């Protein structure tokens, strides 16, 4: 199981690492991306969902997904 | 079904709480019929008046009065209430009960106590040796037997910020000599010497409550991260977490010491490492948090005393949140008078 999988997302979009108790507040798009990653969706599929949900172009949405995953990695959450 | 009659101490549910009331609450909620006898040292201990959880209560002489005085009082209470189980919940009581464990047995009183050797191993002064054996870090620690000695220890041996602790109770973070001396004097006046001087470790405080079976196995645990604390360092809000490293440490502690009974590991997480700062030889005051998330360790302990076995499930839910609150309890002043004149209240 990846570190991403462990993060618990509350209904208000706060992700908690159950190992440390550290919490991270997510905005709506970050919540969608993290849920997509946890479901095992590809970055492309997540970007499509992001594009549909938030009315943004596919290209920037895909960049956002990659940026978010890079940020997760930099926070110590490996895939 | 006849209730089990259980006497327990530590009913000082104050701003520096003992675990007795939380244990009583856990046992009352276990579904097992129990009658709880509270044992206190002060008529102002709130547990005397919390009738939902403590059915009857008595004042006890301080352990420093010696075994003869304490055992006579226990015998009187046993004759009046028929209690069969004794759960001592305060650090300062344990050496006496451990020393006279056999006498308690002869009196027909059943307990689950560590041995003297186990108790000494986890003392603040000896933790360096134990932490080596169980494989974790321990902050640099020195004992001061006088205030003069304190001056020699900090900052020469231990830098600021440091933590000044009593051998049994209280701990303060200090940043300079004047606050170190002030806090050391306060603790020594109440609890005596030695004082324990420890390097302060920066990071989140994580705690584990557990129960050891005396054969080397852990029979249940819950880990929490303290979110906020009171000025006395007592938990005010916390969340359950699954810290694999801390759980492994608890298993190692049980295996190495063959710990018998309840315990609490207090630790700091710093740069991916765990620094053990204290091992308490009893349930902590937040024991009801574990009960409320489905791990009723006082009930498991009672099972263990009764049958030598108990539920050993180590799972529990994470992301459960604890918040303490203050509340007033109003009753008849006669109860207080009963305690200060008769040394007991609530007799049926």
Can you put this structure into words, describing what you see?
- The complex is a heterodimer of chains A (79) and B (348).
- Chain A contains four helices and three strands, in the order αβββααα.
- Chain A has helices at residues 3-6, 28-38, 43-54, 58-74, and strands at 8-9, 14-16, 23-25.
- In chain A, strands 1-2-3 form a three-stranded antiparallel beta sheet, with no helix packed on it.
- In chain A, strand 1 and strand 2 (14-16) form a beta hairpin.
- The longest helix of chain A has 17 residues, at 58-74.
- In chain A, 23% of the residues are buried.
- The mean pLDDT of chain A is 92.
- By secondary structure, chain B is of the alpha+beta class.
- Chain B contains twelve helices and 15 strands.
- The mean pLDDT of chain B is 94.
- Chain B has a six-stranded antiparallel beta sheet with strand order 13-12-9-10-11-14. Chain B has a five-stranded mixed beta sheet with strand order 4-1-2-3-15.
- Classes of the chains: A mainly alpha (79), B alpha+beta (348).
- Chain A binds chain B through residues 8, 10, 16, 18-22, and chain B through 204, 206, 224-225, 227, 239, 241-244, 269, 318-319.
Entry keywords:
heterodimer; A: 79 residues; mainly alpha; Arc Repressor Mutant, subunit A; 3-stranded antiparallel beta sheet; 4 helices; 3 strands; 10% strand; B: 348 residues; alpha+beta; Rossmann fold; D-amino Acid Aminotransferase, Chain A, domain 1; Dna Ligase, domain 1; 6-stranded antiparallel beta sheet; 5-stranded mixed beta sheet; 15 strands; 32% helix
Question: In a nutshell, what does this entry contain?
Answer:
Chain A is 56% helix and 10% strand. With 79 residues, chain A is mainly α. Chain A has a single domain, classed as Arc Repressor Mutant, subunit A (Orthogonal Bundle).
Strand neighbour order, sheet with most strands of chain A:
1-2-3
Uncertain spans of chain B, ≥5 residues at pLDDT below 50? none
Indicate how many domains the architecture of chain B comprises. 3
Shape, per Cα inertia axes of chain B: globular
CATH architecture classification of chain A: Orthogonal Bundle
Average pLDDT over all residues of chain B? 94
Q: Report the β-strand fraction of chain A as a percent range.
A: 5-15%
Helix count from the secondary structure assignment of chain B: 12
Overall domain count of chain A: 1
CA-atom Rg of chain B in angstroms: 20 Å
- Could you give a short account of the major beta sheet of chain B? 6 strands, antiparallel
Average per-residue pLDDT of chain A, rounded, comes to 92
- Major sheet of chain A: 3 strands, antiparallel
Number of helices of chain A: 4
CATH fold annotation of chain A:
Arc Repressor Mutant, subunit A
**Count of distinct strands of chain B:** 15
Task: Give the DSSP E fraction of chain B (strand runs of 2 or more residues).
Answer: 25-35%
DSSP, total strands of chain A = 3
**Topology pattern of chain B, helix = H, strand = E:** EHEEHEHHHHEHEEHEEEEHEEHHEHE
**Helical content class of chain B:** 25-40%
CATH class of the largest domain in chain B: Alpha Beta
């Amino acid at each position: 199981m990846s570190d991403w999988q462990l993060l618990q997302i509350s209904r208000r979009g706060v992700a908690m690492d159950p190992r440390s108790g550290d919490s991270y507040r997510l905005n709506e798009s970050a919540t969608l991306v993290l849920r997509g990653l946890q479901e095992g969706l590809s970055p492309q599929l997540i970007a499509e969902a992001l594009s549909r949900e938030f009315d943004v172009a596919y290209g920037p949405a895909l960049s956002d997904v990659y940026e978010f995953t890079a940020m997760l990695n930099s926070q110590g959450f490996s895939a | 079904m006849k209730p089990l009659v259980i006497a327990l101490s530590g009913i000082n549910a104050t701003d520096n709480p003992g675990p007795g009331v939380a244990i009583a609450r856990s046992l009352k909620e276990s579904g097992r019929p129990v009658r709880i006898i509270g044992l206190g040292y002060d008529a102002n201990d709130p547990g005397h008046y919390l009738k939902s959880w403590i059915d009857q209560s008595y004042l006890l002489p301080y352990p420093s009065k010696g075994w003869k005085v304490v055992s006579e009082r226990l015998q009187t209470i046993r004759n009046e209430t028929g209690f069969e189980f004794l759960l001592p919940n305060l650090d300062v009581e344990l050496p006496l009960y451990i020393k006279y464990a056999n006498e308690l047995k002869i009196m027909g009183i059943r307990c689950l106590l560590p041995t003297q050797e186990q108790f000494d191993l986890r003392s603040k002064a000896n933790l360096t040796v134990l932490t080596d054996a169980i494989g974790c870090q321990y902050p640099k620690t020195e004992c001061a037997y006088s205030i003069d000695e304190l001056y020699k220890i900090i900052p020469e041996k231990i830098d600021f910020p440091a933590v000044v602790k009593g051998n049994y109770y209280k701990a303060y973070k200090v940043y300079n000599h004047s606050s170190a001396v002030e806090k050391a004097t306060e603790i020594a006046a109440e609890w005596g010497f030695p004082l324990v001087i420890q390097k302060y470790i920066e990071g989140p405080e994580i705690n584990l409550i557990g129960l050891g079976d005396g054969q080397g196995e852990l029979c249940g645990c819950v880990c929490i991260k303290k979110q906020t604390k009171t000025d006395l360092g007592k938990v005010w809000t916390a969340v359950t977490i699954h810290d694999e490293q801390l759980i492994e440490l608890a298993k190692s502690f049980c295996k190495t010491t063959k710990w018998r009974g309840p315990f609490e590991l207090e630790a700091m997480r710093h740069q991916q490492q765990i620094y053990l700062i204290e091992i308490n030889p009893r349930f902590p005051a937040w024991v009801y948090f574990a009960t409320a998330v489905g791990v009723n360790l006082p009930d498991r302990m009672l099972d263990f005393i009764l049958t030598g076995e108990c539920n050993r499930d180590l799972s529990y839910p994470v992301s459960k949140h604890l918040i303490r609150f203050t509340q007033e309890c109003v009753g008849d002043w006669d109860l207080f008078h009963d305690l200060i004149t008769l040394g007991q209240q609530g007799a049926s």
